[in-house]
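Reading a protein record of the kind used here takes only a little practice. Think of the row as the fold of the chain written in a discrete alphabet. A record is reproduced here so that you can trace the correspondence yourselves:
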Amino acid sequence: MLKVGFLARLVCLVLLVSLAESASGQTPKEWRDSISVLIQQLDQHPNSIDLRLKKAEANINLSQYDYAIDEYSKVLKLDDKNLAALYFRAFCHTQLRHYDMARADYEAFLAIQPEHLEAHLGLAHVLQLLGRKADATDELNRCVLLFPDSADAYAARAAHETQLQQYDAALYDWDEALRLKPSDASLAASKADVLIKMEKWRDARQTLDNAVKQGTPRAALKEWYDKLK
């Protein structure tokens, strides 16, 4: 269900997609073997940014976030504007609940590359985790302004508004997200969930029925249909 945890799932998904481009479905043993080889290569080339980024990637795939942070920090000593190191170190800090450090990395990234949706969403997620609700709202508003054609931007703001029980605002944003991604079942389910909270039963059923017409199996929406009974 796409609701309170939307930003967390989206940020993780973006990271996994980014890593999958070079991961090639490696097993944990293969990642460990890769790290052993990379350590040997780094002994010979300690200032190689490429090798350190590859090792950090392997560390992340093994959930070794501390080691990945160490590698990204070494990269940033060599190149203090390395966007990959800033972005993925922010993610690792978030995984380890170092939220202030994650925020600093996202803000440093955005100071260099201000038009990057995933970094804005990552920052908004960290602000939520820090309990900075107003700042998170401002960041999500910025996302929508910068990326008006992104369903993810609207959905992220809608999820935040849902969490704050700002249901009318959330409905508007779920509708905008669905306008941009009309066949996304998770968006329809999230909109229906808000309508159910508002006791707008007929509108909720219509939203679910529309999702079924778009090709979503009715069984996939059983949780929400059951709430209408």
